[in-house]
Amino acid sequence: MTDFALRNVPLLSRVGADRADLLRTDVDAAVAAWPEALLLRVDRRNQVLISGGRVVLSSAAKYADGPDENSVFLGRLEDGRHVWGVRAALEAPEDPTAETEVLDLRRAGEVFDDVSAQLVSTATALLNWHDHARFSPGDGSPTKAIKSGWARINPGNGQEEYPRIDPAVICLVHDGHDRAVLARQTVWPERLFSLLAGFVEAGESFEACVVREIAEEVGLAVSDVRYLGSQPWPFPRSLMVGFHAVADPEQPFSFNDGEIAEAAWFTRAEVREALEHGDWSSDSPSRLLLPGSISIAREIIESWAALD
Q1: What is the CATH number assigned to the segment(s) 166-305?
Q2: Architecture of domain 11-161 in this structure
Q3: Do domains 11-161 and 166-305 have the same CATH topology?
Q4: With contact defined as beta carbons under 8 Å apart, do 38 and 58 qualify?
Q5: Do β-strands 179-185 and 260-267 pair in parallel, antiparallel, or remain unpaired?
Q6: Record's Gene Ontology CC terms (predicted)?
Q7: Among 47, 81, 138, 308, which is most exposed with the fewest C-beta within 10 angstroms?
Q8: 6-21 residues labelled b (16+ CB within 10 A) or e (exposed)
Q9: How do the domains of the chain map onto residue ranges?
Q10: What's the pLDDT tens digit per position in 205-243?
């Protein structure tokens, strides 16, 4: 076995609403649709209000008379209503009988429906970017949000800036048969293992990054690098690009960059048993605890473990 595919779309990669990018520059359409539009509030801790597996959306018209400097356009629902996001304190839903909970994307992603996952992921990424992009990187001048929150402009010279995304690879290294490498970072508690990952460098392809990062982190030379899928990871602005690659288990581990505390080859049976114990939040005494379902790492591990 040298190839496999993801069984499911990673949780934060799901699509449930029309991003409607053409509407970002249509001011007349934005203003006209505002009275019926919905609003997603995200607080300073990137928390949202959820109810029944869905993010709570409120009336945009009750927040303001129209889109303002702090509003970001998130898309259009199936019924045609626009959805905007703002950094603001959370408010109780209009229905006083609704059971609600305050959670962030990491903790709520696995219970969200497709629409909520897309809206909250997009809002979190955009609002985090605005929080740190209020001054021009060129001359330090204050910038202004434009294009419904999808860009910022330096009024002095017209220079536009767009949301920054930091691409990172994440890779399951296996032997082509029944064993895969899992590793623990130095800052993680004992027994918490995941896949190897790292940021893409300037002038580097995804595949070259996989080879370099795995050699740097655990000293293994890998081959047959193959793409699996990707997932936005707005903590604060990453895009995780998933791969798998083959390595020889006879190679010794070498922790060269100081990020990895330990790594080991695990059999498919051992990984399956660990998956049955849940995830990192489990109080299981299992030797191996794995990432939660919000991460593409979990989907990659589960897809590999499900192979016959």
Answers
A1: 3.90.79.10
A2: Alpha-Beta Complex (3.90)
A3: yes
A4: yes
A5: antiparallel
A6: cytosol
A7: 308
A8: beeebbbbbeebeebe
A9: 11-161, 166-305
A10: 999 999 999 999 999 999 999 999 999 999 889 999 999
